[in-house]
Structures are given as C-alpha cells and as structure tokens.
Description:
eight-stranded mixed sheet, globular, alpha/beta
Amino acid sequence: MSFSSSNIHSVSNTHNYDVIIIGSGLGGLSCGAILSKNGYKVCVLEKNKQLGGCLQTFSRDKTIFDSGVHYVGGLAEGQNLYQVFKYLGIMDKLNLKRLDADCFDRIAFNGDPREYKMAQGYEAFVQGLLQDFPGEEKALREYCRMLQYICEKFPLYNLRMGGYDEKEAVLGIDAAEFIDSLTSNKRLTQVLAANNTLYAGVEGKTPMYVHALVLNSYIESSWKCVNGGSQIGKWLARVIMENGGTLLKHKEVKHIVAEGHDVKYVETAKGERFTAKQFISNVHPSNTLDMLEGDSIRHAYRARIKGLENSNSTLMLNAVLKPGYFPHMNYNYYYHDIDDVWGGHVYTDDTWPANYSMFISPNPKDHHFANALSIMAYMNIKEVEPWKDTFNTVSNEASRGADYEAFKKAKAERLLDVVEKRFPVLRQCIQSYYVATPLSFRDYIGTYDGAMYGILKDSTNPLRTFISARTKLSNLFLTGQNLNMHGILGVSMSAVVTCGELLGMEKLLHDIKKA
C-alpha cells in the first residue's frame, strides 16, 4: 500500500488545526490515529520522504528490510498490544507470522557448542531452559514470577487506571543485579540477560522493570511483520486520513514559537507556519527544546533533559541472500563473543564486535529459505566522528566520501568474520549487503548521537529518567520512546499516555478495552 501525492494535502503559508503532531514515528502516528478517531482535526508533519520513523522499511535488490522493527510481542488475542491495535482499527490488517513456539530467541556463546532456546508461554519457557539447566527450576520460576510481578505493578501496561505508588517499589531494582542473584550458575544468568540488546542494557544502570516489560511481552507471544514493520505506519496513516486528518512529508519543523505559556505556531525550514490549539512532539525531548523559542521553559528543566544519557547506537548490516541458499530460521539469534552479556557496548578496535543480534526474513515465495538478514552490533557514534558534519537521507542525498565507504566495508567484514564462527558459509550465501552506521540513524531518526532506544533508564535514579507527557507549556505535549519505554509496545503506550492528557485517561482506557 502506498500513498500518492493526491493523498497528501498541500498547504499554504499558515494552517489551522486542533492538533499539530511533529514527527510521524509510531508515537506520532498513534496519537494522530487516536485523536482523529475522537473528532480532532489532526495534522502530522514529517521531515523525511517516508512516514514512520523506526517503522520505515527500505528496499535493496528488490528485498525489503526493516529499519528498526524486527519483531513484536503482545499481539495474541487479549494481550495488551493486540487490544491497542484493535482499538486503532489496524490489528486485522497486519500481515504477521508467529515465531517458533519453542524458540523465539536463540542464545549462543563463543566456545560453548550449545545454543539456548527461549520459548513462548511461561511454562514452555521454564521447561525449555530446564533441558539445559536441569537443576535450576527454582531460579527459573523465580525469574518468571518476578517478570510477572513487575508487569502487574504497571497499570497502563495492563490497560487499567492506577497511580505512581504502585510501581514505585520496583523502579529501583537493577536488572543485572537481580538476574545474577537468582543462582550461582553463571551460564544461566548470562542466558537470561543475553538479549539485553533489545533495550541496550547497561550493567549497574538498566532497571529490572525495563527487562521485565520487554521480555514479558515476547514470552507471551512473539511475531514478525511479514514484508516489514512499515505496514503498521501505513495503516495508522490510513486511519488518520479516513478520519479527516492530514499527513505532510518534507516538512521539517525548525521552530516551536511560544508566547507566555502557550505555543502559538510551529515553523518549518521553508518558513511555512502551522497553527493549532494543541501541539505534540514525537521527536526527542532534547531536540524539542532546541526548537522551542521563548523563555517559558526553565533553565533547570532544559539542563536536566540535556544532561540525560542516551542509549547506545549500532552498526546494522543488511544482507540480501541468494535464493535457496540459506535456510530460514523462524527465531532471532543472539551471539556473544565474550562471557559478559552486558559488556558488548564496551569495546576496543581489537575486541569489536563483542556481540551481535541477527534477524532473519523468510523468502515470501518459499518459507523454507531466508531472503534477507539483518545483523546488529553496538557502535558508538565517536567511531564515525570524521564524518559528523555530513548528512545523507533519501530525500537529501549526499555522499560521505570514499573513506566512509571503506570504513563501513572494513567493519562489515569484521562483523561477518564473527558471524561465520556459527554460520561458516554465510558469505557464500550473500548476494549483496548494505551497512548503516550511527550516522544513518542520526539522520533518519533525529537523535544527535544515533541512539536507537532513546533515553537510557537508570535504576539508581529512576525519577530522573521519567519524562512526563506534559510540559510547562499548557498546549505542548511529548510522546514517543523517551517517555515510558521504547519498542512497539512501549511507544504505543506512550501515545495512550499523551492522548489521555487530552481525552481523559479513564475514558480512553475504557474505549481500548471495549474495542
């Protein structure tokens, strides 16, 4: 499904709406869909050629790749994301494939011939890991109990009303510390934390609630979007348009102009002005503050937001596979070249990559074989410092130069060397590959350091990394992965939080549950 230019409304120099939404990532599109369903005249402004932020897909050699959505949890009937998507009117339109019931994530370590399987469903999860850790039932059941206990403490995660006091007791639990405390069996504790690249986990910092909310949704049910996650964005855009909303691409908001305690209008790079009663920013809070003119936001608040640490960025190798060469694996693959699964983001030239995550796409014509795979490894944006002043997107193409291409090739080959420890003939199966660095994520997503998962949550000071949907301006709200959680589920919930400020949370949750 594509949108022709006739679907996208043209604008004169100033336009009036009920709500202007800056950025068409999942948070922005979900807010647009919810509010337009409730009678608001909505306009979404997107700087790029394609809608969807991390939902975007791209095509190479007639093969579709995801920018960021490699699998989704919580989409079985009755589960939380299923219910939100049903309310939004998109659930029955999505083309989904469920990952293997006995293994949604497979974990491997250098020097260990075994591969450990994480199964869907809590009892299957326990029984599956008991095959490799027969004496560890107590630890595995305590781990599962804790995941479910923490998730119960988050009212919105369970689509119900509730207060901060419910979750307060669990916010300060450190993920690595808790998992390590379960057993003296170090291999088991490393396996349980091995897919922490899902949320860019940092030992001594990442809270257990982040681990629990993410892993619980995947244990409940794990899915792949067939032909990419952009379908979520496209169907949300359709909901917005069917409810009279407007979506405008190539509209980069440069200025949010306020007088007193109200935003009056936003202005694009081309000088176009858009006015509305309410404004929602789906871009990083730090970037939002950079756009905001006027002295209505206190210096202390600006300093706090600017001082928050972002999660890690990555290098992504996207490979087109020769037809019929590489068997399709209906699960995700996490490999650690070092024993410490939390240590992948700390590396030197010699030790990179310390780990990787691999996501495999089935050939649409023959699901026995894969047609593409994406391999992700941590990378700090400092590695691409020599090219920091370059900018390159589809709508604003510019070469970063031969040195940059040589850098990407060297990194890709190093990564493939490590992958071939487990998949020895992979290179023979690859038709072509394409590499994205932190600069690619910076230019498309808009975070200054290419962070994939927004602001890094901190168990030592959890309140500092919580950001309210409300701002000090009466009609400016925030949404997206930096509020509560990243990921499809986390961002969808952040949109519910933001829209709850306008519609009333009790009414909105009632409508979602009754959908």
